Amino acid sequence: MRPASHSSRSDMQARRRLALGVLGSLGLAPLVGCGGGSDDASGATGTGAAAGTCTEVPQETAGPYPADGSSASNRRYNVLALSGIVRSDIRYSIGSSTPVAGVPLTLTITLTGTRTACAPLSGYAIYLWHCTQEGDYSVYTEGTIAANYLRGVQATDASGTATFTTVVPGCYAGRMPHMHLEIYPSLAAATTASNALKTTQLAFPTDVMGAIYNANAGYSNSVRNLASISFQTDNVFSDGYALEMTSMQADASGGYAAAITIAIAT
Question: Which one of 62, 141, 147, 173 is separated from 54 by 20 to 30 angstroms, measured CA to CA?
Answer without folding.
Answer: 62
